[in-house]
């Protein structure tokens, strides 16, 4: 299997424009220096300087791929990313290490759980959240060759699913059901697939959608999930505000507004159990249940304990979703 590091080495051999930089975050690229020579630059713990240097190199025709811990890359250097890279739209790839729960034992100062919200707010900034090493290696070529800035929420762990070919800006359906659609991204796909297995065993028909990219986001898939299921669940190791739940909400509201479908019609039909209108298209969408971090940082521990404490193991995700289905009477109880 070709790794992220393998791709960068091979790409650099074929393209003199590639420059790899790091702010003392070498975990994913520790074997590259002998192969890249002076095209490998470690700036030390100087994220802002690295972003400024990358912008200058991009202006000279280079394709910088820069690495740092996600927290310090997206927060400490944000103004440099926005101004030096975002406003001119330079082709710099920003790779954030140990984002979300992957920061496990570190406290709030090192937890990147608002990174997606911050970066996707920059116009034309792409956001790629690979589920594993296979998807990372599959997606990185189109990201680097896109000619646009991109933030990669890095995860290079082993794959637990057989991926479909990577398609830029498109989500991936890992399973297809009719009752509940689970939308997620990054390493949590492992837990989401486990949750699906438990929900299916309980009698529910469950879809799993790996969003892959959150900017640009696959609006068509989000709406398809909303039209074809009774409940959509967003699952993410990110603050509730600004992440996937916010993205789905934005897509929903734009869709309803574009079709002149106001809240009054939706409420009326739900409260009266009115059948679908026969004289024009039905635009109702499934309710959305968010599973995310609400107004707090997570408790540091080893990763398995973090997932268990925060309710993100496959078993606890399934339990939370079943409880929601029963309490809101969204579907008849299956057991």
Structure description:
With 335 residues, the protein is an alpha/beta fold. The chain contains 13 helices and 12 strands. It has helices spanning 4-14, 33-36, 47-59, 70-76, 78-86, 115-119, 133-144, 189-201, 219-228, 244-258, 263-272, 303-310, 314-327, and strands at 18-22, 40-42, 63-69, 93-97, 126-128, 150-153, 172-175, 180-184, 206-210, 213-215, 231-239, 287-293. The strands form 2 sheets. It has a 7-stranded mixed β-sheet with strand order 2-1-3-4-6-5-10, with helices on both faces. Strand 8 (180-184), helix 8 (189-201) and strand 9 (206-210) form a beta-alpha-beta unit. Helix 8 (189-201) packs across helix 13 (314-327) and helix 9 crosses helix 10. The radius of gyration is 21 Å and the shape is globular.
List the topology elements.
Layout: H1 4-14, E1 18-22, H2 33-36, E2 40-42, H3 47-59, E3 63-69, H4 70-76, H5 78-86, E4 93-97, H6 115-119, E5 126-128, H7 133-144, E6 150-153, E7 172-175, E8 180-184, H8 189-201, E9 206-210, E10 213-215, H9 219-228, E11 231-239, H10 244-258, H11 263-272, E12 287-293, H12 303-310, H13 314-327
Helix pairs in contact: 3-5, 8-13, 9-10
């Amino acid at each position: 299997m070709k790794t992220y590091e393998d791709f960068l080495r091979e790409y650099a051999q074929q393209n003199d424009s590639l420059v790899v930089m790091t702010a003392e975050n070498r975990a994913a690229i520790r074997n590259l220096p002998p192969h890249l020579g002076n095209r490998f630059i470690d700036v030390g713990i100087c994220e802002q300087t690295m972003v400024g240097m990358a912008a200058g190199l991009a202006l000279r025709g280079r394709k910088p791929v820069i690495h740092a811990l996600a927290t310090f890359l997206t927060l400490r250097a944000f103004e440099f990313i926005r101004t030096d890279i975002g406003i001119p739209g330079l082709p710099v790839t920003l790779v954030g290490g140990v984002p979300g729960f992957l920061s496990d034992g570190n406290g709030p100062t090192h937890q990147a759980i608002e990174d997606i919200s911050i970066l996707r707010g920059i116009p034309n900034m792409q956001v790629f959240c690979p589920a594993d090493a296979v998807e990372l290696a599959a997606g990185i070529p189109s990201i680097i060759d896109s000619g646009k800035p991109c933030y990669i929420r890095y995860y290079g762990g082993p794959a637990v699913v057989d991926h479909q070919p990577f398609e830029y800006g498109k989500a991936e359906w890992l399973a297809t059901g009719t009752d509940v659609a689970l939308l997620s991204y990054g390493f949590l796909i492992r837990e989401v697939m486990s949750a699906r297995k438990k929900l299916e065993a309980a009698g529910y028909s469950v879809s799993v959608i790996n969003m892959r990219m959150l900017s640009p986001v696959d609006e068509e898939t989000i709406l398809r999930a909303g039209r074809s299921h009774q409940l959509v669940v967003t699952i993410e190791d990110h603050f509730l505000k600004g992440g996937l739940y916010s993205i789905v909400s934005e897509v929903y509201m734009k869709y309803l507004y574009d079709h002149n479908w106001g809240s009054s019609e939706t409420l009326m039909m739900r409260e009266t159990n009115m059948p679908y209108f026969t004289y024009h298209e039905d635009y109702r969408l499934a309710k959305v249940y968010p599973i995310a971090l609400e107004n707090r940082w997570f408790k540091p521990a080893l990763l398995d304990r973090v997932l268990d404490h925060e309710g993100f193991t496959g078993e606890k995700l399934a339990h939370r979703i079943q409880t929601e289905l029963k309490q809101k009477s969204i579907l008849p109880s299956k057991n």
